[in-house]
Amino acid sequence: MTATATDLEALGLRRPEPGDVGPDDVLTLRRRLWVWGGLHRASLLIVGGLLAVAGAVHGWGAAHSPALTDDEGTYMAQAWAVQVQHTLAPYTYWYDHPPLAWLQIAGWTWLTGSFRPSVDAIDAGRQLMVIASMISSGLLYVLSRRLEMRRWTAAVVVALFALSPLAVDYQRLVLLDNVAVPWLLAAMVLAASPRRSLWAASAAGACMAVSILSKETFLLFLPAVAVLLWVRADRRTRSFCLTGFAATFVLLAAAYPLYATLKGELIPGKGHVSLWQAVDFQLFARQSSGSLFAAGSNAHTTAANWLHLDAWLLGVGLLALPVSLSARRAWPVIVALAVPLLTILRGGYLPDPFVIGLLPFAALSVGMALDVLAGPRPAGPDRTGPQRPASLVERMARTAGAARRPSGRGALAAGVAVALVLTVAPRWDHGDRALAAANATTPVWSAETWIEQHVSKNQRLIVDDSIWVDLVEHGFDPDLGVVWFYKLDNSNNLDPSVSRALPQGWKDFGYIVSTPVIRSALAQMPGQLTPVRDAIGSSQVVASFGAGAATVQVRRITVPGRTWPTTVRRPAPAPARP
Amino acid sequence: MHPLLLAVYSAFSALLFAIAAGTLWWMLHAWRTPEVLRGTGFQVAQSQPQLSFSLLVPGRHEEAVMGATLDTLMASDHPDFEVIAIVGHDDHATREVAEAAARRHGPRLKVVVDENWPKNKPKALNTALPHCTGDVVGVFDAEDEVDPRLLRQVDATFSESGAHIVQGGVQLMNFRTTWYSLRNCLEYFFWFRSRLHLHAEHRFIPLGGNTVFVRTPVLRAVDGWDAECLAEDCELGVRLSTLGAKVAIAYSADLVTREETPDTLRSLFKQRTRWNQGFLQVLRKGEWRHLPSRRQRLLARYTLSMPFLQAFAGLGLLVSLATALWMKAPVVLALLSFLPAVPTLVSLAFEMAGLREFCRLYYVRPRAWDYARLLAGMFPYQLVLAAAAVRAVVREALGQRGWEKTAHVGAHRAGDTAAVRPQEAYS
Known about the structure:
The structure holds two protein chains of two kinds. By secondary structure, chain A is mainly alpha-helical. Chain A has a domain at 442-557. Chain A contains 25 helices and five strands. Chain A has helices at residues 5-10, 29-39, 41-59, 70-85, 100-112, 121-146, 151-163, 165-172, 176-191, 198-214, 222-232, 238-253, 255-262, 275-285, 298-309, 312-320, 331-345, 355-373, 392-401, 408-437, 442-454, 468-473, 497-501, 516-524, 530-537, and strands spanning 461-463, 482-484, 511-514, 539-545, 552-557. In chain A, helix 3 (41-59) runs parallel beside helix 7 (151-163), helix 6 (121-146) runs antiparallel to helix 7 (151-163) and helix 6 packs parallel to helix 9 (176-191). Chain A is globular, with a radius of gyration of 28 Å. Chain A starts with a helix and ends in a 21-residue tail after the last strand. In chain A, 44% of the residues are buried. By secondary structure, chain B is an alpha/beta fold. Chain B has 15 helices and nine strands. In chain B, helix 4 (92-105) links the parallel strand 2 (81-88) and strand 3. In chain B, helix 1 (3-27) packs parallel to helix 14. The longest helix of chain B has 31 residues, at 368-398. The A-B interface holds A 1-3, 7-8, 11-16, 20-24, 195-199, 234, 236-237, 239-240, 243-244, 246-248, 251, 255, 258-259, 262-263, 386, 388 and B 28, 31-35, 37-38, 162, 164, 202-203, 215, 217-218, 220-223, 240, 242-246, 290-296, 324, 331, 334-335, 338, 342, 345-346, 349-350, 352-353, 356-357.
């Protein structure tokens, strides 16, 4: 170059020198965090307080109440299989649910080292569920705020969601739905991004995919997320945002059928399970739970159970829907409740945990109705408007200057909220205290301890899923040493491996542990599970724990003419696993 | 499966994924948020004309299109500009067309004869630089269709932004001519509508070959174009970026310079080889190392290594798919093999959104057939690009630096019925 530095300078250019600093951002991370914290200090205080209370209510007594369920045992056993056996299930994985939820649970148990004899597996799982529900509560607050709700109505949403005895009860259980909810709420928080960024829309698609790969029924919430994205997106970038959302969602969700394809298990074939059959079973073959309104039907019983715990959250949530119908920002909440509810009314199989996905939206519906009732918000910081404020500092300045005028409608909404709180508070206080004080799990764990001390490790036992992992951790053989009771009757599942390996059925077993889970399964499925009925019929109680419906009995099976005892036959010692 | 092999393969898949995802993310820069979209849109500048322009039009064997291009340039509504047609001393046909145009339009259209041998575009431009009298030098190709209102807008953009360089939009238009032309058009669309703005924002810009305007003293201070570079436009942009030059992008669907796609797959392939090789030369020349910030250097390294990365990604994708389909690999490994395909498929989805946007901007009704061609063309087009990238790497390694030219037939001009002979040209 012939030009001198002076020439260049005259033109507004300059030759770079070593040590020059480029036009990079000057705000440090620390400074940004500080500004962010200052901007959101009111919300941080509110959420912090709510989470502290909710954490105490959820965590206190989670190990003892509610009673252990079969599903919790199943998912913990599958997480155990992932961590220990590097397979998706201790038995043949037959695509009953996508595996992502228990892969996440396995991540937790691996991190915390939960699979050891001194820890009850389901207790470890329930700790994760308490954390998940705390995350959900936090996300629900952010979502409420992003749906342009006031701080106090957002706080009402979180309080309803976190403190209803129905929520406390179900959210403690190790269920796939409880893993799926935070991902669903994260998807909605991202879809409601105030910057309406393409990145957020795509990330929302990813979170939604994780959610349905954790629990497939969450597909019912896809319309709500799509509506949210649609109403929030800017007209000019909408097609790109929807494309980003759809593309990431579809491609990630496609990993599941792709997995089945790679294993050669997409479509039915001789001698293997298939995704196709599993979907067919879940959607069509499964026995309908009957009409919600027919007394005595399974659906009716399930719903009555929910409402028995707390009828207020779902009830007020539904009643509040029409109030916010006119507000565009409420549409996603309405769709999120309407689609699953219509699915219930249509009939078909109604799984008990179905209510878990409804809870955040019932709470949102109440909060949204209060917010709509309180009227339009006073002119304040508009984070959703077309102008993105230049900086965090500027936003902070605007927030500080926002006028706060009390209004008549605001007082009305506050009055309704206070009345609601005064009505539910005593009931919920009673329900939550009961959940904290009850002890429904001790008989099961006492029975486990007795078995570990009195039954030889080479005995073969029929158990329900909830004690399976604990017995395996104490040395019983996971491979046909302890067996899930319903595997004996494969009319109710698609895995014939157990009946194939044990052609004698229940006669190959030495013990059966009769738990409330097994007895209620027998009661709910008359005419099925015959081998389990026979095993109980041909056995005597050798130890009993608890009383009444909660009784757990260890029963020794006697078979006339059988060489006693029946022990686990092992062809060869299994190679040691790392 | 050996854990080490699994780790190596995972890293390989993750790398391919990262390359494709990074390119995709930058391709979508303009649509990141509605604010970015507005900021990258064309702001109608209001200022009165203040600058004078010298418009350079190098042409080699362009007698079929040169005359019409000079006529449209002379039709500009700007009050103060000159046009300089640059022709080779051995190219009599083009020279005649240019001189005929000069007779029609008078002294504001000059013809400069380039005596250099062997010939290339940067040498032609450097030959004309001393003849420029305007405040700003603009470059156009001989087949460009330029909007007469463009210069006023560029003038106003210079005044209002204080930029050293204004890059105008260029758009290939004939998206229904051949199977690859749709994809070629969309590439231009994403590049000029979106990606260039990212480069302008980070102050590292590989300039385009035409509709680019530089203040004349700036151009003279850096001695014009690099005569030996196959991507002289890119090279100039990089050199000016290291000096901290400010670039403004002026993209508006109304004012873009319209061009045609290469008329055969072969010429597309050659053109792409030349660009890639040019990028590699700029990479090797290393001016970009003087960029002040780390982020800029990273962006520069990535952008200029694109031919390498593209060749690597193209071959890698084939390896991945082969692994997934034919090897009896464990399921986890097979799933990993599909990872690099994910951004490619996401790109396809965004290309569909882009096609819709492109059609909306240019008042064309998209047909289902267009979307089908977009889908069907994805894989073959990627292969052509990857092959051109490999060829560029090989040619550069072997020291073959000859100038391969693109033929123009005027397919972008509606109703052009003149019998034209495909010829070699610069662009």
